[in-house]
Every structure is written in structure tokens, then in C-alpha cells.
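User: Hey, my collaborator sent me this sequence without any context and asked if I could get a structure. I don't really work with proteins. Can you help?
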Amino acid sequence: MFDSMADMMCVPLLHYKYMDRETSRMGLAHSIIAPYGKVSCSDGEVVIVCQQHFEWVRFCEGILQRPDLIKSPRFATNTDRLANIDALFAIITARCQTLTRAELITLLEDSNHPLANVSSVPDLSAHPALRQIEIDTPGGKAMVTASPLRDDIKLGPVPDVGEHNKQLRAEFGP
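Assistant: No problem. I've predicted the 3D structure and written it out in C-alpha cell form, which is a compact way to encode the shape of the chain:
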């Protein structure tokens, strides 16, 4: 897992090591690509990405419905977009807030754009890939996530508060 996360931090690490520049925390945004980041729809969030100029063109035409932005001096190049990031995301946000997540995702997929759905805890709870097991607790049965590593790991009952006090005090003292 460490190697995976280190790989995702490759660009900030290169900036630090070779440019003596520490990249500030950006959340789901990107320090050198625009637009790249989380946008709000009417019912949730989606991450949009335009890494190449042809993606920017398709994004302006197919998603924003604003082909005029393609050659706008404020947004024509990635460098221009980064210099005007607040204005850019104001335009993107105004459009995306008129769409549901499903509508935006469909538009992005139809335009062959990279994207990520920003999931919530309720989304996780309803996800078909979520594996859970039932355990006993002092308050009754509960469903918890299954071990991601081994299916043979079975959890025993959750102890009640103070249930093992005598054993712990005997082992570790008063």
C-alpha cells in the first residue's frame, strides 16, 4: 500500500526533490493540470480531468457547451487555465450544478473523458462489492466489513464493557 501511495505522490515528490518546491495540499485537485478536480453536481460530486489539449476541447464542446473557451486567452492552454483557475472552476461549477452526478458521468463517458465518482458513506453502504459479516455485540447483532485479506478470518463476539476486567487486572495489576 505504501508503494501505491508513494507512486501517486510522484509529481509532488519530484517538485520537492528537484525544484525545492513543496506542493501544498490540493485535495482532489492537481498542482499542474487544469481542470482537474472535484466539481459539485446537483446531487453529489464527480472528479473531472483534462490532461491533454484534445480533452480540454472535448470538455468545452461536450460538457460545458462552451466552445468559445477553447481559444479564450484565459483558458487556451493549461498554463492559462492554471493562472485563471478560480474563474475556470466558476464556469465549470455553474454548468455542473445544473446536472446530476449520473448526467455528468454520462456526458463524460460519452466524450471519452477520465472521471471519478466521489462516493459518500451511504454510497459505500449500498455498493454491490461491499463484503460484510455478521458479529455479535452486547447490543445485538451487527454487520461489519469483512477482512480484505483473508476470507477465513472470523470475528468472535464483541465483549461487553468491563467483561474482561478481572483477567486484565490479574495479568497487568490493579
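In plain terms: The chain has eight helices and five strands. You can pass these C-alpha cells on to your collaborator as they are.
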